[in-house]
Amino acid sequence: MWKCVDKMRCFRKRSMLPFLGFLITFLLFFNLYMDDGYVLEAEKRQLGESLMHPANSDRYVHTLRDLSNFSGTINVTYRYLAGIPLPRKKYLTIGLSSVKRKKGNYLLETIKSIFDQSSYEELKEIVVVVHLADFDLVWCENLVQEITRKFAHHIIAGRLLVIHTPEEYYPSLDGLKRNYNDPDDRVRFRSKQNVDYAFLLNFCTNLSHFYMMLEDDVRCSRNFLTALKKVITSRDGSYWVMLEFSKLGYIGKLYHSRDLPRLAHFLLMFYQEMPCDWLLIHFRGLLAQKDVIRFKPSLFQHMGYYSSYKGAENKLKDDDFEEDSIDIPDNPPASLYTNINVFENYDATKAYSSIVDEYFWGKPPCTGDFFVIIFNKSTKISRIKIVTGTEDRQNDILHHGAVEVGQKSVETKQGRQCTSYITLGEFKGGSIEVTNVDHKIGFDIECVRIVVTASQKEWLIIRTISLWTTQPVSQFKK
């Protein structure tokens, strides 16, 4: 009998441990919310009132659900300064947040660049949202008048919206944590900037399929939307949280619109902890995108000379920026295979990616070795360009090889393969470029194959495989 009693006591102790762990965790998080200002003051008061009146259980549960449900938007009433959202979802929302600067103002130039560098067809697929986030309402009204005067037709067409978030919705910006030994005014500036972005993201949640964050002092490359669509299409079927089209600041960062509520909540929760571009790294990691996915050439260039913080000089430039982005390859969705021995994690897919510093690297290939791209569906190819080797490994090129295109694919034990190939040309100096492919080949292409025609002692780097199709980007899958 005493053994049974001892067992029951042990069971009770073990069963209490998970409960105590949950209780401690809840109290810690509650302390973070209440003491450190991670949520808006209104939310603090609401949660506090709920805990003071436990009898009202429905309200208590509803409040906790609001705080924990990061997939829902934040309850904010915005002021519409110009334009109203259209009912139809666009392809891309471009968001900008702007405050009064001590020196210079580049917002109008940025808006102009977005519209000027877009074709008529591209303009149909974008909406630009400007968040005037300064608490100086006179400055906001004066700037809105300028925007309305210069871009009235875009406002009327529903392509440009200007909003403002009332100061009452902001959390406290006094007595903030001085992380990284930043001065008080710097902490206040970057903390408010996080909240500015959070409210902008929150507003843009349901406007489009994708969202691009820009700063208010950039210029765009020509037909940047077409380039974005090519990249998004080439990533079809692969997981990503954030794609980067500039290596500077919070410029050219692309998201799925479905992730905007969570990102907005995240910035609000940690608004006083660190600058927004650092928080973005943590957000990306929390959603299981471990590595940066950045593309070249950059599509956006920083053009301001003075920072919005104290008017300090900021002459940073993105040396990967190109004014004309229309030459970015299409690289339609495909599977890639090779029988060349792969070195570490430099696998075949990295040769087909336009991500910075990604490439295929294999051990010395032999005659007859191959590297094949099999499209998800047959397509018309207009141009093929393949580059091997890198600047620091110039000998790791394909010394002897050819490029072939194939059709009549069949399923085999090794996967889908083409049964008929035609040779387009041979590598010279480690690279090959073939134009007018669709005029030379009388069939829709299902495979592109690189064939090694002579063994070599050097390892092989395939830096880039670039393919251009004759299919209009507007037909690509969203």
Q: Can you lay out the helices and strands and say which pair or pack?
A:
Elements: H1 2-35, H2 41-52, H3 57-68, E1 79-82, E2 90-98, H4 107-116, H5 120-123, E3 126-132, H6 137-150, H7 152-156, E4 160-164, H8 184-203, E5 208-213, E6 218-220, H9 224-234, E7 242-244, E8 253-256, H10 260-269, H11 276-286, E9 300-302, E10 334-338, E11 360-362, E12 370-379, E13 381-388, E14 401-412, E15 415-426, E16 431-435, H12 437-440, E17 445-452, E18 460-469
Parallel strand pairs: 2-3, 2-5, 3-4
Antiparallel strand pairs: 1-4, 5-8, 6-9, 7-8, 10-12, 11-18, 12-17, 13-16, 13-18, 14-15, 14-17
Structure description:
- 31% of the residues lie in helices and 24% in strands.
- The protein has helices at residues 2-35, 41-52, 57-68, 107-116, 120-123, 137-150, 152-156, 184-203, 224-234, 260-269, 276-286, 437-440; strands spanning 79-82, 90-98, 126-132, 160-164, 208-213, 218-220, 242-244, 253-256, 300-302, 334-338, 360-362, 370-379, 381-388, 401-412, 415-426, 431-435, 445-452, 460-469.
- The longest helix is centred in the first third of the chain and has 34 residues, at 2-35.
- It is elongated and about 70 Å long.
- It is α+β, with helices and mostly antiparallel strands and 478 residues long.
- Residues 1-68, 307-311 and 473-478 have low confidence and may be disordered.
- It has a seven-stranded mixed beta sheet with strand order 1-4-3-2-5-8-7, with helices on both faces. A five-stranded antiparallel beta sheet has the order 10-12-17-14-15, with no helix packed on it.
